[in-house]
Amino acid sequence: MEMKHLFLDDYSEGAHPRILKTLEETNLSQELGYGEDDYCRQAAETIKAKIENPYASIYFVSGGTQANILVLASMLKPYESVIAPQTAHIAIHEAGAIELTGHKINVVPSKDGKIKPEQIADICDEHTDEHMVRPKAVFISNSTEIGTIYKKSELEGLAEICKQKRLFLYLDGARLGSALASLESDISLRDLSRLVDVFYIGATKNGALLGEAVVITRPELQPDFRYHIKQRGGLLAKGRLLGIQFLELFRDNLYFDLARHANEMACRLVHGIDALGYSFLSPSTTNQIFPILPGSIITKLQQMYGFYVWEKMDSENSAIRLVTSWATKVEAVDAFLIDLRSFRGVG
Length: 347
Ligand SMILES: Cc1ncc(COP(=O)(O)O)c(C=O)c1O
Prior knowledge:
This protein is an alpha/beta fold. It is 41% helix and 17% strand. The protein is built from 14 helices and 13 strands. The chain has helices spanning 17-25, 38-51, 64-75, 89-92, 97-100, 117-126, 152-165, 176-181, 189-195, 225-231, 240-251, 254-275, 295-302, 330-344; strands spanning 5-6, 57-61, 80-85, 105-108, 134-141, 168-172, 198-202, 212-216, 288-289, 292-294, 305-306, 308-312, 317-323. A seven-stranded mixed β-sheet has the order 2-8-7-6-5-3-4, with helices on both faces. Strand 12 (308-312) and strand 13 form a beta hairpin. The longest helix has 22 residues, at 254-275. Bound molecules: pyridoxal-5'-phosphate. Pyridoxal-5'-phosphate binds next to helix 3.
C-alpha cells in the first residue's frame, strides 16, 4: 500500500519554492568560487545583523555532521575531549565521526536531551591530569534530539560553568529554527551569539536544499577555520549555492516562518494524540514529537505512514518519532489523527 505521508524527518521534501526561484534567477550570474562570492558575503552580513554581532565570523557548509566535525576538530587539541549528553547526535548518529578525529566524547546521562552545569563540573573534576583526556568543549543541541529546548536561564548556566572551567560551548543548531520558533522559547539569535562560542544555524531541515551556517563568536577560534573546511573537503567550489539560500531565508522572516509552520503542525499532532489519552517520551514543543503507542497500533500505522520507532518503553508500548516540516500539510496531520483514532477504536 502506498504511504499516505512520511513523518520520518524534516528533509523528505526538496526546497521551499522561494529558494528554488532565487537559485534560478541567479543561475547565470558569474561569481567567485569557494564561498567568496557576493551572495555568501551578503548572507554572512545579513546573519551578523540578525545576531547583532559584527565581530562574528560566518561559514557555510553543507551538512550537520560536517559542521560538527569541523567545529570540534578545529577547537580541540589532540588530547582534548568534548562533553555531551548521551542523546547527542555526535554520540549516536554520526558513525563515530568525532572519535575518528581522535577526540573522546565524555557522555553524560540525560533523560530530556539536555545537559546540566553540575554534570559538566563533575566531568571536569574527574579528569585531573595528563593520564586522562582533558575536557575542553561542551556539545549541546537546540532543539535537542528529542525535541526539547533550552531556556535562556539554562543556557546562561551552561555558559557560566564553561567560563569557569575554561571550556568552549558549542551548540548544534540543526533544528535551531524550530527551537527558537517554539512558543516556549525565550532565546533569540542575539542571546546565542552572546552566550555560545560557536553555533550553527541549520537550514537543511528548514526549507533549504542543503546548508548550515557556522557562526563563530569566540575570536580565538576564528583564524584558519577555512583551512579546516578545505582540508576536510567541505569548501564547495560552488559555495554560492549555500549563500544564495541563506540570503533568501534571512532576507525577511522566511526562516522563522517555515519553522513556525513545522512547529504548528507538530503541535496539532500533540493535541490530537494527547486527546486520545496517549503520553509522550518528551515534552517537545518543536517539530519532533515522540508519542508512546501500543505495538499493535504502531504496526497498523506503519502500513500507512512513515516514521521511526524510537524507543521501546515496555513489553507492549514504544515511543515513535513523528517529524513535521515546513512543507507538512494540515490534511496529512488530520488524516494521521483520524486513522489513529479509528485504530484505537474511538471513532
Ligand atoms: C541535531 C543534529 N545534528 C546533526 C545532524 C546531522 O546532519 P546531517 O545529516 O546533515 O549530517 C542531525 C541530523 O539529523 C541532527 O539532528
